[in-house]
Amino acid sequence: MKKIFALCLPVMALGLTNCAPSASQLKSAIEKDPSIVFVAIEKDPEKFIEVVNAAAQNAQRKSQEKAMEDETKKRDDEFANPLKPEIQEGRVIFGKADAPVTIVEYSDFECPYCSRGYQTVKQVEKEYGDKVRIIFKHLPLDFHPQALPAAKYFEAIARQGHDKAEKFHDAVFLGQSQLKTDGDKFLKATAKKVGADMAKLEKDLKDESIMARIQADMEEAQKFQITGTPGFIINGVSLRGAYPFPEFKSIIDRHLGEKK
Asked: Which of 54, 144, 156, 213 could in theory staple to 110 by disulfide, Cβ–Cβ 3.0 to 4.6 A?
């Protein structure tokens, strides 16, 4: 009997005479006197925190499940209708030119998440060898002042050899902290280190076609709704963010499996 009475107390406190009030009755009572809620919390604050935490965790779990469902659906849609980034003639390619899997990367040389992406791509190259090729494209963000200059250097150095451009790319990501602190001084030193002809480099950096290529990359990324860095398109299937290696692996393996 005491237990039943205890269960009804909160309801009586709301000014109701029924132990099973409707949602509208509860809402109306609380709106008239919000202090009812505060009194209930004060009676058992630990229980209140426990309930709130459980509700928050449940909401987070449902949100994550929904996000995973949406991501799976989007991925299946892109396998069926792959995105088609343009690969211009003369573009720098890391890896074998006729590899069955093409990863187009939209990146920012100053972005710390792109540095993580760089490490993951290196792992992909090590794991898959000649089965993958990387097309490095540019998405320099406004709040990274050294990203655009670094992108220009990369494209200008590429005119002197794709091998030099790749070495420059690796050196900049490995020395990203120096890029942030030393800027153009670091870029010049790195260009010299990879064997660039500095006179030709200075001339090519002023060529408007280099900026036009970078701008085209940025517009293409936007078309594919890649607004942050890094972003990847793996044989037409997108990954937006610095995902770990297993995410790349699941997409690449599926592509390779479908090609058998």
From this structure: 144
Amino acid 104 reads V
Provide the pLDDT for residue 70: 63
Q: Tell me which residue of 21, 45, 26 sits closest to 36, measured CA to CA.
A: 26
**What DSSP string describes 138-192?**
E---TT-TTHHHHHHHHHHHHTT-HHHHHHHHHHHHHTHHHHHHHTHHHHHHHHH
pTM: 0.77
Structural domains of the chain sorted by starting position, each given as residue range(s) with its CATH number in brackets: 2-80 (no CATH), 93-259 (3.40.30.10)
What pLDDT was estimated at residue 7? 43
pLDDT in tens, 210-245: 999 999 999 999 999 999 999 999 999 999 999 999
